[in-house]
Amino acid sequence: MKNLTREKILAMEPGKEMDALITEKVFKKCPHRTIRSYYCQSDSGQECMDCGEDLFGNRCPQYSTNIATAFELFTKWGYQGSICFSGNEWHCEIMYGFDPAGYGVYVKAEGTSAPEAICKAALLSVLAKEGDG
């Protein structure tokens, strides 16, 4: 992930940019960053200027602030891991592969909310898979 480091991921705040990165890097979908509204006599709406998709309310999901959508990282993408609350923060551990001996290799991240910790761990796992972590 160009210009995205472990330190930058861990320092990120939950919000639109983190949600867009999850959509783009984890789910391999367009995060719809450039939106154009259009109005004409017979139709109106919004389309993504990056991919051309007619959005009709289809925006980037709020992975970093909504626990239900954050859990899609486990259910839809197939991550294996754990999430727990300890001290004053949430801790998430995600397995992203196997070492040569066949044991799981994990990344860990913390956050002030469970969705934040899950998203940071997911981004770190993509970074590790790409060899940048």
Question: Can you give a write-up of this model?
Answer:
The chain is an alpha+beta fold and 133 residues long. It has a domain of 93 residues: Bacillus phage protein-like (Bacillus phage protein, 2-Layer Sandwich). It is built from five helices and five strands. The protein is globular, with a radius of gyration of 17 Å.
Strands, helices and their partners?
Blueprint lengths: L5 H6 L4 H11 L8 E5 L4 E5 L18 H4 L1 H4 L4 E7 L2 E10 L5 E8 L2 H16 L4
Antiparallel strand pairs: 1-2, 3-4, 4-5
C-alpha-based Rg, rounded: 17 Å
SS elements, strand count = 5
Please give the share of residues in helix. 25-40%
Say what oligomer this is: single chain
CATH architecture of the domain at 6-29 and 61-129: 2-Layer Sandwich
